[in-house]
Amino acid sequence: MASEIHISGPHIGLFNQSSQFIIKDTTINVVSGDQFNNSSIMVENAKGTEWITAPDPLENFRIAYLKIVENTGAWLLEDESFQKWKNNGELLWLQGKAGSGKTLCTNIINNLWKEVNAVAVFYYFDTRDQAKVNYDGFVSSLLCQVAGKANNEHAQAKLQTLYNNSHEGEFLVAEDKGAILIDLIMTIDKAIYIVIDGVDECKEQTKVVDLVGNLSKLNNCFVLLASRPHLNMARIAAGQKITISLGDKDVVNADIKRYVDIKIEQSEFSEELKTEIKTALVNGGNGQADVNAQGGYYGNALHIASILGHLEIVRALLENGADVNVQGGRYGNALHATSIGGHLEIVKVLLGNRADVNAQGRYYGNALQAASIGGHLEVVKVLLEYRADVNVQGGYYGNALQAATCEGHVFYKLQAAKAI
């Protein structure tokens, strides 16, 4: 008899271009519309874990998948170190610039879903969603996903114990959920792959690394995590992990160039400007793509896309390792450049990617002064929320308050901020 299926909004959204579904047991088969490489997406039986509040990583997967450019990232699936991890276990650590692992992880997840004798679960840490930056949300999501795979009496008993001991889910402790997660994985008679992206975006990185270390010791659990190189992995023995440094791979540079080239061609830039951006992306020394290469009036590709308000190009560059704070060109930095034009959504994206809100630019001094002189009130509000200093000196007008006063813009907002 088919098991009971609980499908929430985000699961439907994953196939929002599809016209027909066949639901059988726990597999959704897409008959027409969007298909993820013709693989099935498992929608697990949610009965028994609805009392656990957990972030849904499926939306992150959907967004990342739709941005994958054909033939990029395929090299990793054939990489010797990746194959060693996939076949023999241990822990695989992908280290690279911010955003560089997201599409690779998504490709890997899609590939692992095709494995007949294995199951795959995943998680994306995401600073744009406060529910997805803490350890509790991470372990809760993995527990709910694994519970859907561990359909046996022992697993159900463990979940029931957790439910009872937490007063029917009212007082759940992350450490208890982590312990039950390990117990549940041990009841599964298949290999289980766990793919985790953006660990350096978590507020409690040590807890994540400790749990990952324990999970990777299980015979049937293969863990892959992606982060920037500064993540402290010293707590995991060198012999327990395999490391792939994305910064050392020429194929990554080729992927970046292809990805950004396609995004630029899809934009409404003039042909002259497209040529300038592509030129800025090329490192003249070896011809490889370099999203941070300096050159031309605007400085680099991120600065160009920011000043002209092209949100998708900005996102594409950041996802492929563009340095959000690099200095150069007419406007000094990307946040300064986009604040001049009042491009609110780009301002939010840059700040969400750790742009320095008080970094000094060129003519207008800093982003707050640039937004103030242009009268971009909503941008000013966002910059102040990120603790822009209204008193910092620099630029043609001296400070943001003087810039706003000269043009009669957003004066009262700045005056109130200065008075605090």
Helical stretch count?
19
- Looking at CATH, which topology of the largest domain would you report? Rossmann fold
Question: What is the strand tally?
Answer: 8
The CATH architecture term of the largest domain is: 3-Layer(aba) Sandwich
Query: Rounded to an integer, what's the Rg over CA atoms?
Result: 24 Å
Shape: globular
Determine the oligomeric state from the structure. single chain
CATH domain class name of the largest domain: Alpha Beta
How are the strands of the largest sheet arranged?
5-6-7-4-8
How would you describe this protein?
The chain folds into two domains: 9-248, P-loop containing nucleotide triphosphate hydrolases (Rossmann fold), CATH 3.40.50.300; 262-419, Serine Threonine Protein Phosphatase 5, Tetratricopeptide repeat (Alpha Horseshoe), CATH 1.25.40. It contains 19 helices and eight strands. The protein has helices spanning 9-13, 58-66, 74-78, 80-88, 102-112, 135-149, 153-165, 174-187, 205-215, 250-266, 271-281, 301-308, 311-319, 334-341, 344-352, 367-374, 377-385, 400-407, 411-419; strands spanning 20-24, 27-32, 41-42, 91-95, 118-124, 191-197, 221-227, 241-245. It has a five-stranded parallel beta sheet with strand order 5-6-7-4-8, with helices on both faces. It has a three-stranded antiparallel beta sheet with strand order 1-2-3, with no helix packed on it. The N and C termini lie far apart (65 Å).
